[in-house]
Design a protein that fits this description.
Distance between the termini: 19 Å
Helix content: under 10%
Strand order of the largest sheet: 3-4-5-6
Number of helices: 0
Number of strands: 18
Protein name: DUF4394 domain-containing protein
Structural class: mainly beta
Order of helices and strands: EEEEEEEEEEEEEEEEEE
Length: 227
């Protein structure tokens, strides 16, 4: 997806072929925040800033043509971001209010629901993570550059917003808001300072295994994905 939310780009990891499609957009309208469901359908969030209370629309995107189909529209003054898909409930859930509220759209009923997250006045949820069993996790951090800094990996009850702290993470650096679950490795993996891959073992209070990715020629690493 382009920075302006106007172009969808596909890369075939087998053939390395790159294909791009232009999406409906304007000076006040763009689509971003892609997510994929259990049937490999691609969705995105279209933001329309025409009015003070922006309209946001969950849309379905045909990746082979770029055709966009609206699924659910709603008006909010906060951006709905970091969406993930929960197969067990057929919901797309993301963050609002600077990471202080869950916002969900049920793909079956098209109902929407907002759930406040506890204890997040001093530490915001930076991203959501979901495993193959529809368990929801989050990276929660307060990074102000002082002694109040905290970073945590937490489990989140998607129905109630209740959290369980799984692991305190170091704050003498920065996870780049991208922690994923890699089943083959049996745990969480994240990017550290855009230059290293970290494996997070939630069963050990200290285990963070790093592997340098190399930053030659100015390369940095920000986002990971898995299949």
């Amino acid at each position: 997806m382009s920075d302006s939310g106007s172009v969808l780009t596909r890369i075939n990891v087998t053939t390395k072929q790159v294909t791009s499609f232009r999406l409906p957009s304007s000076e006040t309208k763009g689509t971003s925040q892609l997510v994929v469901d259990k049937s490999n359908n691609v969705y995105g969030i279209t933001y329309d800033w025409t009015s003070a209370m922006q309209t946001q629309t969950l849309v379905k995107i045909q990746p082979s043509t770029g055709v966009v189909t609206p699924i659910k529209s709603f008006v909010e003054d906060d951006d709905w971001v970091e969406p993930v898909y929960l197969p067990a409930t057929n919901e797309i859930v993301g963050l609002m209010n600077d990471g202080r509220r869950l916002f969900k759209v049920n793909l079956t009923t098209k109902d929407t629901i907002g759930i406040n997250l506890p204890g997040s006045a001093s530490a915001e949820y930076r991203e959501l993570i979901v495993d193959n069993n529809s368990n929801l996790f989050a990276y929660k951090a307060r990074l102000k550059g002082d002694v109040s800094d905290v970073a945590k990996l937490v489990a989140v009850n998607a129905a109630t917003g209740q959290e369980t702290i799984l692991k305190d993470l170091p704050v003498d650096g920065k996870f780049q808001d991208n922690i994923i679950i890699v089943p083959q490795l049996g745990g969480f993996v994240g990017s550290w300072n855009q230059s290293a891959l970290y494996k997070i073992d939630v069963n050990s209070p200290f285990d963070l295994t790093s592997r340098s990715l190399g930053t030659g020629n100015g390369n940095t690493y920000n986002y990971f994905t898995t299949n």
